Amino acid sequence: MPFFTEEQETVLSLLFCREEDHPELVEFLSGSLASFAAERIAPRAAENDREEVFDVEAFRALGELGLMALPYPEAYGGMGASFAYYCAGLETLAKADAGFALAVGIHGTACDGIHRFAEDHLKARYLEDLVQGRKIAAFCLTEPGSGSDARNMKTTWRREGGEVVLKGTKYWITNGLSADVFFVLAAGSDGCISAFVVDRAGKGVFERAKIADKMGVRSSNTAELVFDDYRIPADRLVGEEGQGFRYAMEMLAGGRITIAAQATGIAQGAYEKILKYAHERELFGVILKDLDNTKRELSEMQIEIQASRHLAYSAAELRSRGKDVRGPAAIAKVKATEAAVRVAQRAIQLAGGYGYVQDSKIERALRDSLLHRIGEGANEALTILVIPRVLYSQYERTPLTEIW
Fold this sequence. Notes:
It contains twelve helices and ten strands. The protein is α+β, with helices and mostly antiparallel strands.
C-alpha cells in the first residue's frame, strides 16, 4: 500500500478541491514525499528505533524536498500552502517512522513560534534556514517540575545591559541534542513568562545531556538543557516581554494538530501491517482475514483512523484561516492519540505472539503511540481543562434559552 493513501487525498480534496494549487500539492505528497518515506525513512526505522538514532541527514534531505516549507510564506522560502497539507505530510512520515516524524513536528512548532510572534529581524536571521531544513529547531517549554503546569517553570531571565541572562533547566526537549536554534520560555522577576530565540553563539554555560532508554519514538533525540548564566543579545526577545506564555499556548494548539496527524499515521501503519498479516496467517483452517472477529476489528480500526484524520486535517485548515483552534486542536489530539493506542493494541492482539516481537514491526506502533497521549498537553489535562473551558465559553456566548 502506498505511503500516501487514497483516504488522505479524499480528505484533502473535500477541503481544497477548488484551490488552484491543490493538484500540485497532492502530487508532491503522493509522489516525492511518499517515495522519500518509502525509500529513505521506512527502511531504517527499525534500526534507528533500536539504536536510538535521529537521522540528521534524512532531516536535511527532507528540508531540501520541501515538506517543512509547505505552510510558510514564499518570502522565507516557503510554499504558502495550508497547514493541512503539512499535517498530511507528517501523517505519511509517522506511518514510516513516528520518532522521525515527531522530530520534524516539534521543529515545526518552534518555526511556527518564530514566524507568528518574532520581530522581522529574527525571522530574517533564522526562519529561511529552518524551513529549508538547513538548521534544526527545538521548542523549550517543559522542565523537570513543570509539564502540563507550564506556569510553574523555574527557568529565569534577567536583563543586564544589552544582554539577556538565562538560568535554569529544560527537560524532555525533542531535538535538544541536534538543534541549532531553541525557542526558550523563561520567567522574569515579576513571574511573567517571555520567549527568546537562542542559539549556540551566546556566552556562558549551555549544556545538553541525552535522555536515553525511552520506551518509544526512539529515533528522535530527547535532551535535558541546562542554562547557567547563559548570555544572549537582548534583541533575541520574541514579541512582547511577558507574553511568552500566550505565545506558547498558541504554538501548542498547532502542535496538538500535528500530534493528531502523526498519531493517525502510526495507527494507519499498524492497521496496514495487521491487514497484511491477516491475509497470510491461517488459523483454525481458515485465513485470519475471513474470521468474523478479524473483520470487526479491522473495520473498527478504519473507523477510528478515518475519524482521526478528518478531525486533524479540518483543525489544520481552520488554523490556516486564522480561526481559534484551541477546541478543535485538543479534540483532534485526544481522539487521534487514543485511537492510535487502541489500534496498535488490537493489532498486536490479532497477531498474537508474532505481534509482540520486534520482527513484526507492529509492537513499535504501541510504544510510539503512548508518547503521543502525553506530548503537547496530556490527554487528561485536555479533557479536564482545555476542552471543557472551550465548550463552556461557547455555551455562555450563545446559551440555550428554550427547550423544544
